[in-house]
């Protein structure tokens, strides 16, 4: 890397750090390029040489958040890859919750309230969003394809209009990915998402003594339902 | 109501309408009493005679949002009260989703990202939050207490440290409310919450053809699990 490129990277990293700080203090919608420029002692136009718009910066932060979550899941999946499917999946789902609670602003950035006026660039964000799903789909594939576990019986009676959409990145990651595996993944996803969102925003704490135990207990039940 | 009280009420309603408009345009975190005052041609201090702080206004909006959702559920429950438990509950859960999609800002206000710096007044918001839960708990009570349906078997093996917290408003609403009924309510809640949050923020649409059918199908499965 040239000295010039290195300096550019340092500046970009500093802009992102300040953006995250701003969001932590004022919410994800509070991002202001001018405020960041001011803080860095730069002019607005100078900052635009690094990010051409507020939305470009938001997109960069979203991509990094997705990637950080995906990496956390991937690392856990790799660490427990030689364990039984159920043990490996449990660890990955526990990591998902842990990451959300440890990174509340990043989690809000990708799964929380939309940022007003933000026009996402799906071409950029969708493939990285897919990376979050990939380690879980891989474990499910191992269970239902390699180990030939029976699919849960509720898959037999799905309404015909309920079609799974295999994204480009899913097809790329695994051309033979069965729709049933993706469907199970989606069902599992909304389960853990519901619990985590309620806990992250303090809605479940007034109702149940121990959200961590509640989550653990419910993911066991979820895995039972899925024959895992 | 005196002429003076009537005028006061009209002003309060106008402030709330402008606040909702502001949130719809700039997100729930964008609320500014000064901007509202300016728009109404009032001075800041004059507005403070109606709401003593930004947080007081937010609290009022949160209470109204909870009440609107609670009323929607309550009305549906009343309309289907003489139908079988499962049919009545189905309609209430469909209303829950419908209300969320029709009132995305109100839904974000009560269940979305926390508003930075907002100090909620739980003494005020908690009882109205409880009202949302009440129509559902009432239906569950009918099923498990009046109709003596068996509790789902997963309730038999709960970890001992998993205690349900009966809020003051729950005890008030129904002194004999069994913890098991509340537990089932919480489990059901995170299910529908997960699906709705993913749909509201456009995460499920890229994965499944028809989120409405998906939701309907999953609440049937949920009710099966609960012996309803």
Q: Can you lay out the helices and strands and say which pair or pack?
A:
2 copies of one chain form a homodimer.
Chain A: H1 3-26, H2 33-39, H3 44-47, H4 54-79, H5 85-102, H6 104-111, H7 122-146, H8 168-173, H9 179-200, H10 211-225
Helix pairs in contact in A: 1-2, 4-5, 4-6, 4-7, 5-7, 5-9, 5-10, 7-9, 9-10
The fraction of residues assigned to DSSP E strands of chain A is under 5%
Main β-sheet description of chain A: none
Mean of the pLDDT scores of chain A?
A: 94
- Terminal CA distance of chain A: 47 Å
Radius of gyration of chain A: 20 Å
What is the CATH topology descriptor of the largest domain in chain A?
Answer: Tetracycline Repressor, domain 2
Overall, the morphology of chain A is: globular
CATH homologous superfamily of the largest domain in chain A - what is it?
Tetracycline Repressor, domain 2
Named at the architecture level, the CATH assignment of the largest domain in chain A is Orthogonal Bundle
GO molecular function (chains A, B): DNA-binding transcription factor activity; transcription cis-regulatory region binding
Pfam families (chains A, B): TetR_C_33, TetR_N
DNA-binding region (chains A, B): 32-51
Keywords (chains A, B): DNA-binding, Transcription, Transcription regulation
